[in-house]
Write a structure and sequence with these properties.
The chain is α+β, with helices and mostly antiparallel strands. About 45% of the residues lie in helices and about 20% in strands.
């Protein structure tokens, strides 16, 4: 909807779209840093007290090899252990970026299509940014989306983003 792209949230004047893009970027960076490979793309969505970050692509060569051998359960189990270990880091990142308290976090790996969905549940303390986010995404489908190839771990922008947290 017209005019929503410029709506500022409560964290230093950032628009809802900028916040979503930062969430997607930070998630790609975390995947690249800790998993060794990030997704092909990531997009963040906020609706009410829910944050979804959908990452497309990104299975490692080892995972694809195991999937080709029919070992889906092993791949899922390994990914789940990784996400369990990452829960505190990812929750802290989301809280830092959004200024909202995260009550719980869950991750789900889909095999076909190659996709991971990260779900964060917020405390219901700030519905206005969620409305701005929803309105912004309805007006521009690319709001909150980043390409994995555009996010490089260790570059100057990454260092600046990390310093802002």
């Amino acid at each position: 909807m017209a005019g929503t792209e410029g709506r500022h949230d409560r964290r230093g004047g950032k628009t809802a779209g900028e916040t979503l893009e930062r969430l997607a970027t930070e998630m790609v960076l975390a995947q690249k840093q800790y998993w060794g490979r990030g997704p092909d793309s990531a997009k963040a969505y906020v609706m009410d007290d829910l944050l979804f970050i959908v990452m497309r692509g990104g299975s490692t060569t080892a995972e694809r090899t195991m999937l080709d051998a029919g070992r889906e359960d092993s791949v899922r189990a390994t990914r789940q252990e990784f996400e369990n270990d990452m829960a505190e880091r990812l929750t802290d990142m989301v809280q830092d970026v959004t200024g909202r308290k995260v009550l719980t976090y869950q991750s789900q790996m889909l095999l076909d299509p190659d996709m991971v969905v990260e779900l964060f549940v917020f405390d219901k303390d700030a519905p206005a940014p969620a409305r701005a986010t929803a309105e912004g995404q309805m007006g521009d489908g690319s709001v909150g989306e980043v390409r994995g190839t555009d996010v490089e771990a260790g570059d100057d922008d990454t260092d600046k983003a990390a310093e802002q947290r």
